[in-house]
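Structure request: ATP-dependent endonuclease, Bhargavaea cecembensis.
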Amino acid sequence: MKFKWIEIKNFRNFKEIKVDLTNQNVIFGLNDIGKSNFLAALRFLFEREIRKNGFIESDFYIRDVDEEISITICIDIKDFDVSDHSKLIVSRMAGARSSEDLENIYIRLNGVYEKNEEIGGITVYWGNSLEKLKEIPQKNGFTELDRIFKVVYIDPLINLERVFEKNKRAIFNQEKFNAKDIEKSEKIKEFTKEINKSIGEMDVINNFEGEITREYQSLKHENIRLTIKSEMAINGYFSDLKPYIKREDDDNLYPTSGDGRKKIISYSLLNYVTKNFNSEKITIFLIEEPENSLHRSLQIALSKKLFSNEAYKYFFLTTHSPELLYEMDNASLIRIHSMDKIVCSSSYVYVVGDDYRNIKTQLNKNLVTALFSERVLLIEGPSERVLFEKVLGTVKPEYELNGAYILEVYGIAFKKYWDVLRELGINVFVKTDNDLKRKKNTNNIFDLIGFNRALELCGKRKMPPINITFNESDTKDLKSAKIVQEKRRLFQKLKTSKRIINSNNIYISTIDLEHDLHAALGARLEELTGNSNPIKYLQSAKLINMAELAKELTYEDCKHLYDHPKFAVLKELNKHEGE
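Returned structure:
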């Protein structure tokens, strides 16, 4: 079973959206943009306690109660032969499933506002044809869906004591007692009777009972007596169980204090309950901003749990935390954002390809912070990052607060990042070198990897390799000079390709970053580096020497670079914010 897509119409701040899903879904965006409302739509669809109350006027988009609410989800059951969950759904559908489409199941909830009752009545349908859905009978809000799905909603302020109380009966179910437990249980009951009897015989208790009874009867003439009993006598000996912490080599009990610790214990408890007591149902976790009160290291640990623990097979997570996404794979990224005052969303099913499997965590660490930005500049490596952060930090010190972000891709993953970010509606910019790469087993044939990288991002055909003529007497430096000369010639020649590339916010250096710097600053670069050949100097120890250069750049230097055509991408990055 796999969640395929969801469509929400006329619900709260959603006029109409349709987004792709998978079984692990991450919803993100600015505050007050609709993430909680997205989870609320799922709760109405799958959670009886929410559904039975119906819709109120404010649940309808801009309170337009003349338009009905519609929430539809599509579930892929192609794995029917091997999936118990797919089989469970089909077994409960009875006659609602026809032979038209055996690979998909559709569940739809409609809400129609009844003005006389001032409430939105809810009807739920399902089937395998969107045009022929059948109504699911309800009784007190209970439907066949509630025999299939169990929703575990975890709010940001998850309460350990409440989680423990809610699941205590299932955890300590007496039907699971073995013979030894049964024997001990009988003894505890006898002890409890004796303890409660002794408590009831205490003078302080008896005196209080007499006094309070007389006070009551003075107000209301009724032949009753108020009595005090231990809760253990009424609710059983499990009623007072509370979770504590016990350290190794220490017999003392410590309270489960600290919001972070309580949250981790709560998640551990939910993992246990899901694995041991919810196996007969499909458990869907709706998790809202779990990073609250969690240290960064615990957020990373929770990320591993969410994306690898079988208990969290199906979840919808809202978050502002990059650390929670470090371990994601096969996840649907859902970015909710506002465009022209119409709330909409973008989604992208993110899969770490086999090419990046061995660097998954590093790939994700680089990507996830960019997901929370409006505009992202992709660069090749740390030298560009050091320089551009210096320039933007000096000329536009609030560039990150205004939604811009610089993401280095180490020259290997431009396309991966480009696809994800653009699919999610994030403006992407690229600055890359005009690289040439010698073809394997040749001496003078080169691929235009810089231009071809850019053309690939634009969806255009790559250019063929070129031939650079070298003489046998050419030294290494002369060969390098010929390659630089060829790069310069190509940059001047490929005007049409450059126009296409620039129109997609992609900017290619004439040669590379160091040559661009020299072209922009001229003799000033020699002065700053204290070297008559600043290009070679910067290329010799790229990051170290670039970091030293960045320290020396004045505001005037940074402003000059920001305004220079060689670094036009920096100004374009900020123009999209309205500069």
